Task: structure prediction
Amino acid sequence: MPGMMVDSFGRVVTGLRIALTPRCNLNCIYCHHEGETKPNGEISDEMVVSVARAAAELGVRSLKFTGGEPLLRCGLAGLIAQMPQDLDISLTTNGIFLAEQAGPLAKAGLDRVNVSLDSLRPQTYRAITGGREGDLEKVLAGIDAARAADLAPIKLNVVVLKENEAEISDLIDFCREKGLILQLIELLDLRHQGLSGDIDAIERRLAARADRVRVREMHRRKKYFLDGAEVEVVRPMDNTEFCANCTRLRVTSDGKIKPCLLRSDNLVEIGTCDCERIMELLQEANARREPYFGKTRIINSEVR
Ligand code: SAM
Result:
C-alpha cells in the first residue's frame, strides 16, 4: 500500500489543483496565471488521468481543475468522466460558458464549482476582467445552471480590490439569496502593478457582524456566518499559518508538478503517463514543499 504524501514540515497533501489550459477568454487586471510564467503546450488527457490516479493512490482526496479557463478545454466532460470515483472533483471557472456546460459536466461526474465573479456591476465587471458586453449576464446564467445541476456547494470567488470594495455587502446578499458561499480572496499583487484592496477592513466588519466563526482545516481559513450567509476569507500574504496548513500540490498546464503557487524554481517535470513513475514524481515534488511564508510546524489545535 503506497504511503501518503507528508512533507518534512508534517503537512499532508490531500488536494491537487491541475491547470488544464493556459488559454483564457478574459484578461483580469490582477491575474496571477496560477503562478505559471511561460507555459509550453497543454497537458494531455492521458497525463491528467494518470496524475489523478497516482495522486488518489497517494491519499489525495480532492482535485480541482483550473486554468487559464478550464471550460475552454476540449472534451472536458470526457476527461472528468475518467477521474477516479472516490475523488471530490471541482473546478474554478469565470462562468461565461457554464450555462451550457454545467449539466453535461455534472453528469460526467463533476461534484462542485467555484465561479469567479468580482463584481455585479456591468461596468466594474468589464473594467476588472476585460470582458465583453453581455458576459456578466452569461456568468449569472451559468450560476443558475450550476445550481440547477446541483454542483454544490457553489462558491463565488471574489478578489478584494479597491474597484469592488463598496460592493461586498451586495455580494453577500447575492450569495445568501442564491445559496452560494462567498469566498473573499486577498489580492496577490505578484506583478507589482500597484493594485490594492483593503481586506483587513472588510474582515473587521465581517467579524463584528458575524453570528459565528469557524476555522477550516485547510490554510486555517476563517469562515463567517452572518444572517444565513457564509463568507470565507482567504488570506495567503505573509501568513505563516496559511502556509503551515497548506495541503496542496499543483500541476501546471504544461505538465509540471508545482509545489507552491509562489515559486517556479522547484517544479518537477512529469514527462510520462506511467502511473507508478508519476507516484514517484509526486513524492519528489512533495519533498520539495516548504512553507513560503515561515517554516512553522502544524499546530493541530483550535480546529472546529
Ligand atoms: N479562469 C478560472 C477562474 O476564473 O476561476 C481559473 C483560473 S483563475 C487564475 C483561478 C482563481 O485565481 C480565480 O478565482 C481568480 O480570482 C484567482 N486569482 C487570480 N489572480 C489572483 C491574484 N492576483 N490574487 C488573488 N487571486 C487571484
User: Anything to note?
Assistant: Residues 297-304 have pLDDT under 50 and may be disordered. Residues 24, 30-32, 34, 66-67, 69, 92-94, 116, 157, 159, 185, 187-188, 190 surround S-adenosylmethionine (CB under 6 Å). The CA atoms of residues 176 and 229 lie 5 Å apart.
